[in-house]
Amino acid sequence: MELTHFNESGRAKMVDVGGKTPTERVAKAHAKITMRPETLRLIQTGGMAKGDVLAVAQIAGIQAAKRTWELIPMCHPIALTGVDIAFDMQESPPAIAIQVAVRCVGVTGVEMEALTAASVAALTIYDMCKAVQKDMEITDLHLLEKSGGKSGDWHREGSHV
């Protein structure tokens, strides 16, 4: 497998995607943030002092997907056609699972946008709740699936998306 982000001198470069044919691209990513039961209850009941935790995390995740190219050096700016973020509150062990789906019609994939959105949504939950719990853990960040482009479809083994 050839690394595409290096030129013949071994220096970093942004891959030229100008000659590629646009296709529909979709990527889905997952992250999880674990917490104490009391913290989860405060989120569920709207008891956090900073406000509606999941509403803010959803907006932050969408904004992160849109700005991924500004955060990850070799990512291209992509005209996203959709970003959807779902939260699954789990009682045992207490956690919030985050699932992100990102779409575009373009010449490069949206895997990094989906992963960035899941990361920032989890970080936002942490930020909104850190006053009541500092030892929350963000785990399980991974790509679930991607479709479109020259490399075709890919699904994480064991994923039930």
Summarize the structure.
The protein is of the alpha+beta class and 161 residues long. The chain has a single domain (23-147), classed as Alpha-Beta Plaits, CATH 3.30.70.640. It has helices spanning 37-45, 53-66, 68-71, 111-129; strands at residues 23-34, 80-90, 95-106, 137-147, 154-155.
Protein model, in words:
This protein has 161 residues and is an alpha+beta fold. The protein has a single domain (23-147), classed as Molybdopterin cofactor biosynthesis C (MoaC) domain (Alpha-Beta Plaits). It has helices at 37-45, 53-66, 68-71, 111-129, and strands spanning 23-34, 80-90, 95-106, 137-147, 154-155. A 5-stranded antiparallel β-sheet has the order 2-3-1-4-5, covered by helices on one side. β2 and β3 (95-106) form a beta hairpin. It is elongated and about 55 Å long. The model has no long low-confidence stretch (mean pLDDT 94).
